[in-house]
């Protein structure tokens, strides 16, 4: 199997997983209503995302030990089984279980895409291939909602998951029968020796930290107050688990998931932080812009999806621009700095636009610029991580970067939703006056509590 076939197959898988992760945002309410579980509908997305955070720390290390082919086949099979299960689910619990299985595969696919590019592509062409990967991933996330709306209106929501079946069957065939298991371990190595080289305790601590943090952010300010004992317990558990994970990696682990070389590398730390912040802002924007179109400007779903493409289409342009600039200049720090600066300006203009202080045409230009600079910063971050890290440390560095990307994509909608709903409650209650204001406020508080607990508002 040649290099192009390998990378193309992984690209297709990553694109479909990114579309799948965002496609549920437009079909959650319909699925929840059909299964009479509207109050639990957000877990269709959350179950998938949380599962990716569990499997991701292990996928890179397992591929170092057992070879890239074995892990690629395993994670592709998991995503395929999960997609089939979602399309055939007869109960809400079956659907959630299938989403967890799909998430176990989806997280590994995103990580392996970055690792394989570093394995197979020469250093002088790596930025070009990373720009392709970044464009595919970010465009997949941006296009998911629009694609989901068309498929649901035409064929039904189950086909949003069934569209994955044929491509993943084809990719499994490619990986099983045409791909060499490069980076495979020595044939004389015993299974016990391989398993002992995996830091299962570190993976468990990291998974616990990520899952509790993500769950706290998803519930806090939405279905529970931030002062609720459950939210406080989740956040406290997350912080404790992160601290224990850090001590374990530095002092106790014989084969740490995040090696000391990776943890001490400034490029890895800086680029990962940049990735986290960009993905928080970008995922929040992708979530809020369609709501602005439909809720404030009264656009239809299809019209809102069409205008949201103003953000989606510049993303691959930004990815390509970053890859080409870094490829020919050999520098990424200045490009990342400039991209982040213009990205912050675009976000500020969008915030003014959403409160109707900026003309519609200017707002559309701003969301196009936001997409362009988001793509630029994401690709620049990926290239920066692999700039001076040893080849044997690539999987460790990519675990850190991909974790930050997934956490950012999860935190963005959760935090923005909590902020919007908190402000909405404050503004509405603050503007209610008159002789019956107290009774109306009490009724409003009751309705908000009811919506939070029973409809997932």
Biggest sheet features = none
Oligomer: single chain
Report mean pLDDT, rounded to a whole number: 79
CATH architecture: Up-down Bundle
Shape: globular
Topology pattern, helix = H, strand = E: HHHHHHHHHHHHHHHHHH
Using only C-alpha atoms, the radius of gyration works out to 22 Å
Percentage beta strand: under 5%
Total strand segments:
0
Number of helices: 18
Query: Distance N terminus to C terminus?
Result: 49 Å
The class by helix and strand makeup works out as mainly alpha
Instruction: Please bin the fraction of helical residues.
Output: over 70%
CATH topology: Growth Hormone, Chain: A
Just give the CATH class. Mainly Alpha
Describe the structure.
The protein is an all-alpha fold. It has a single domain (3-185, 255-454), classed as Growth Hormone, Chain: A, CATH 1.20.1250.20. Helix content is 81%, strand content 0%. It is globular, with a radius of gyration of 22 Å. The N and C termini lie far apart (49 Å).
Q: Which terms summarize this structure?
A:
single chain; about 450 residues; mainly alpha; Growth Hormone, Chain: A; 18 helices; about 80% helix
């Amino acid at each position: 199997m040649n290099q192009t076939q390998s990378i193309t197959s992984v690209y297709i898988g990553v694109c479909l997983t990114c579309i799948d992760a965002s496609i549920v945002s437009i079909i959650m309410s319909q699925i929840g209503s059909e299964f009479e579980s509207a109050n639990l509908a957000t877990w269709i997305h959350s179950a998938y995302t949380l599962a990716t955070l569990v499997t991701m720390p292990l996928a890179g290390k397992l591929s170092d030990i057992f070879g890239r082919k074995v892990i690629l086949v395993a994670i592709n099979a998991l995503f395929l089984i999960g997609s089939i299960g979602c399309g055939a689910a007869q109960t809400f619990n079956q659907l959630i279980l299938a989403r967890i299985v799909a998430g176990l595969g989806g997280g590994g696919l995103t990580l392996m895409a970055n690792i394989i590019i570093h394995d197979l592509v020469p250093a002088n062409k790596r930025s070009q291939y990373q720009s392709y990967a970044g464009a595919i991933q970010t465009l997949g996330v941006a296009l998911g909602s629009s694609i989901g709306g068309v498929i649901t209106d035409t064929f039904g929501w189950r086909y949003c998951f069934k569209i994955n079946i044929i491509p993943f069957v084809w990719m499994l065939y490619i990986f099983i029968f045409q791909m060499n298991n490069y980076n495979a371990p020595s044939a004389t190595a015993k299974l016990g020796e391989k398993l002992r080289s995996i830091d299962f305790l570190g993976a468990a601590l990291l998974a616990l930290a990520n899952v509790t943090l993500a769950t706290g952010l998803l519930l806090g300010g939405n279905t529970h107050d931030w002062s609720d004992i459950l939210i406080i317990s989740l956040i406290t558990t997350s912080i404790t688990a992160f601290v224990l994970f850090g001590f374990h990696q530095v002092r106790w682990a014989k084969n740490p998931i995040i090696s000391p070389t990776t943890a001490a590398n400034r490029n890895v730390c800086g680029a990962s932080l940049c990735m986290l912040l960009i993905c928080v802002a970008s995922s929040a924007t992708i979530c809020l812009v369609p709501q602005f179109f439909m809720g404030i400007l009264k656009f239809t779903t299809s019209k809102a999806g069409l205008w949201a493409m103003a953000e989606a289409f510049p993303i691959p342009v930004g990815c390509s621009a970053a890859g080409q600039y870094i490829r020919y200049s050999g520098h990424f720090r200045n490009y990342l700095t400039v991209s982040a600066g213009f990205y912050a300006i675009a976000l500020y203009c969008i915030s003014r636009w959403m409160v109707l202080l900026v003309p519609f045409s200017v707002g559309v230009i701003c969301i196009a610029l936001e997409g362009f600079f988001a793509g630029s910063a994401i690709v620049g971050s990926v290239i920066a991580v692999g700039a001076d890290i040893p080849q044997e440390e690539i999987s460790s560095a990519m675990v850190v970067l991909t974790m930050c990307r997934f956490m950012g994509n999860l935190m963005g909608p959760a935090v923005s939703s909590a902020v919007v709903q908190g402000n909405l409650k404050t503004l509405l209650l603050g503007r209610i006056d008159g002789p019956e204001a107290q009774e109306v406020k009490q009724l409003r508080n009751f309705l908000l509590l009811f919506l939070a607990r029973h409809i997932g508002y």
